[in-house]
């Protein structure tokens, strides 16, 4: 089984506000550094994204990919790779836990496998950078006003 990388951050907002930003894919280019385009291709009965096309530019890795999303309750979303030019696999998740003080602990778990050979240590470092940037961007976006409302958000 592939090794994964994970990290957590506390965001000063309710889980529903954090998830609203996570679920607003159209706004990803506004707050994530790597996502240049995002398009929801399919939604479930509740209107949540089931398939999303993302155009990524993470420096050395530029990719046009489709991810499949699974929503578990109100506080968890996971994704897996459907199609990609550069990646063999990409599995990840956000798990939100209320802290009891009105804040939310967000844990991001990510496993990436690229089609080109790469040392495990370098791959895990890249995963860590992706996770840390995503969590910092998410925190900044949610605490600045959230999804579409004030400062917009994903």
Give a quick rundown of the structure.
The chain has 154 residues and is α+β, with helices and mostly antiparallel strands. It has a single domain (5-144), classed as 2-Layer Sandwich (Alpha-D-Glucose-1,6-Bisphosphate, Chain A, domain 4), CATH 3.30.530.20. It has helices spanning 15-22, 28-31, 120-144; strands at 5-11, 35-43, 49-58, 61-72, 76-83, 87-98, 104-114.
Overview of this structure, please?
The chain has helices spanning 15-22, 28-31, 120-144; strands at residues 5-11, 35-43, 49-58, 61-72, 76-83, 87-98, 104-114. The chain is of the alpha+beta class. It has a single domain (5-144), classed as 2-Layer Sandwich (Alpha-D-Glucose-1,6-Bisphosphate, Chain A, domain 4), CATH 3.30.530.20. Strands 1-7-6-5-4-3-2 form a seven-stranded antiparallel β-sheet, with helices on one face. The chain is globular, with a radius of gyration of 15 Å. The termini are far apart. Residues 148-154 have low confidence and may be disordered.
Round the mean pLDDT to the nearest integer and report it: 84
Q: Number of domains in the coordinates?
A: 1
Order of strands, main sheet, comes to 1-7-6-5-4-3-2
Terminal CA distance reads: 31 Å
Structural class of the helix and strand makeup? alpha+beta
Helix content: 10-25%
In total, the number of strands is 7
Q: Report the sheet with the most strands, covering strand number, pairing sense and barrel closure.
A: 7 strands, antiparallel
| CATH evolutionary superfamily | START domain
What coarse outline follows from CA principal-axis ratios? globular
CA radius of gyration is: 15 Å
Low-confidence stretches: 148-154
Number of helices: 3
CATH architectural grouping: 2-Layer Sandwich
The percentage of residues in β strands lies in: 35-45%
CATH class, named Alpha Beta
């Amino acid at each position: 089984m592939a090794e994964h990388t994970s990290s957590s951050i506390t965001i000063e907002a309710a889980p529903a506000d954090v998830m609203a930003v996570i679920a607003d894919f159209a706004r990803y280019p506004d707050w994530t550094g790597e996502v240049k385009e995002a398009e929801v291709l399919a939604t479930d009965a509740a209107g949540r994204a089931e398939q999303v096309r993302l155009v990524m530019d993470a420096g050395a890795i530029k990719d046009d990919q489709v991810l499949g999303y699974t929503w578990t309750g109100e506080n968890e979303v996971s994704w897996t790779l459907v199609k990609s030019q550069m990646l063999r696999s990409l599995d990840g998740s956000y798990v939100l836990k209320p802290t009891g003080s009105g804040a939310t602990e967000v844990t991001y778990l990510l496993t990436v496998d690229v089609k080109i050979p790469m040392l495990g240590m370098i791959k895990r470092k890249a995963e860590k950078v992706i996770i840390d940037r995503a969590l910092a961007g998410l925190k900044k976006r949610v605490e600045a006003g959230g999804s579409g409302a004030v400062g917009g958000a994903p």
